[in-house]
């Protein structure tokens, strides 16, 4: 049975080596997505000052500057950072994004593709391998294989402590690759299991929603403004902070044909590290501005709490900068393991062919 498991482990590694390499490399870089954006696009992602106008002032400015678009999502930047807006043109439901200086209300870009920045392109590469729905499925299956590789590696090296620090430098390349492959796997297997599970869940769930359920976005084509422009958004924000003491809003979802209501996503002071920046939701009627519902991580269904914890676990936010560094470094290990596994397979194949020839 152990010999068969070795074969399955090796075959799974070979089948997923290339997509796993791409997913791991892009994911490792994306841990520091915000920092990369600040480095590469400072004039786009940074605000002029740390002050900000009220939403009641900002939204009319945006609507006036973009009369042929509707704002669907509004992500609030940290102090000194630009806000990110998601919009769609009338007559379509193709989401685009742009950046807004919240201190002045100035649009820092025109509406751009969701993959316009390098890091957004990397995100699509990471999640879809630039192959749309097929890539979504391949990445999800690769994540499942990652779970199998981690689990089978634990079984195959269950007595890892005996040779954990052994690196046979002077023996042969095959033994050195084998030792380094095992060492990297032992160090990183807990994180591999977390990343594999959360990645598989997200990708396969999205594939099911978008492909198997035949999600038809043509029914949501933007034809009008779906909320009352007279609603006092700043008063709405104040109501949210009263309903949830210590509430910090992160994202405002405005309505469209598929998503009625105005919804403020955010988090509360003192939230668990396993809660995302969007764990609490305060909802309002999009015609009257009346407060309609409040959901916090504490009173949400267990399924919601479970999937909300995926964000800090997958992105490395669970422990601040320290865990982000660990996620970045250890998240790169699958690249090294894919390479070492491939070279070990190639050397075994060459030795076997040489014996047959002989």
Describe the SSE topology:
Blueprint: H1 2-30, H2 33-40, H3 42-45, H4 55-65, E1 69-75, E2 83-89, E3 96-100, H5 118-128, H6 132-156, H7 173-212, H8 233-243, E4 247-253, E5 262-268, E6 280-284, E7 291-295, H9 302-308, H10 310-315, H11 321-330, H12 333-357
Antiparallel strand pairs: 1-2, 1-4, 2-3, 4-5, 5-6, 6-7
Number of extended strands: 7
Most strands sheet = 7 strands, antiparallel
The percent of residues in helical segments reads 40-55%
On the 0 to 100 scale, the average pLDDT is 89
The geometry reads as elongated
Measured by DSSP, the beta-strand proportion falls in 5-15%
The quaternary organization reads as single chain
Across the major sheet, the strand order is 3-2-1-4-5-6-7
